[in-house]
Design brief:
It is a single chain. With about 200 residues, the chain is of the alpha+beta class. It has 5 helices and 9 strands, in the order ββαβββαβαβββαα. It has helices spanning about 25-40, 80-90, 100-110, 135-145, 175-195, and strands at about 1-5, 10, 45-50, 55-60, 65-70, 95-100, 115-120, 125-130, 135. The strands form 2 sheets. The protein has a 7-stranded mixed sheet, with helices on both faces. A two-stranded antiparallel sheet has the order 1-2. α1 (about 25-40) packs across α4 (about 135-145). The relative contact order is 0.11.
Amino acid sequence: MATSKLGKPFFKHKRRGDCTSEHESEAHRECKALIYTTARDMDFEADTEVAGNGWIADVLVSTQEVTIAFEVQLAGQTVKKTVERSLCYRASGVMPVWLTKASIVEELSSYIPAFELDATDLSNIRVRLPEVGFVPLEEVVRKILMEEILLKADLDAYVPPWHQTEDTEPLALSDEALKVLGYLVLGGLGMIFLAYLFSPHKPRR
């Protein structure tokens, strides 16, 4: 059992595989501690740095209905990496909840649970809820675990930018350009006709 800077207790596993807890920021550790203690205080099974098939959850919480992986992302993880990691969770039957930066939330919140996290003040870590604004992280965790915030994931409907293809629109010509093109075509046909009329090799009748 470890203790965060603000006195929140949480389990800390020894480093294994790709686990990088030893290099986490203080803000990251505080967020994990708040999530863990909130879940445990609600009598849910919870643990930190839980490894699965291709993933390691910051905090894994099990309810009667679902297993939730709370992921705190304060660093510059890309949208593509977030999608890839979410697919790994889905393959294991785990629902990821991303607490991350605004740009990721704007891109993915319609397809996976993603919320903007503000951890600039460790004594007041907050999460932005749609149409509500920023509320304490502990409150958001409680709402999620009490199913007051419904978690939905529809990654199959997400078409990532790196897979999108631009539709090629037909070339649109102005009326003036069409006139010029018509004159050129007619002029070309006229030249061909004249060349035929005055050709010395034209067959005689």
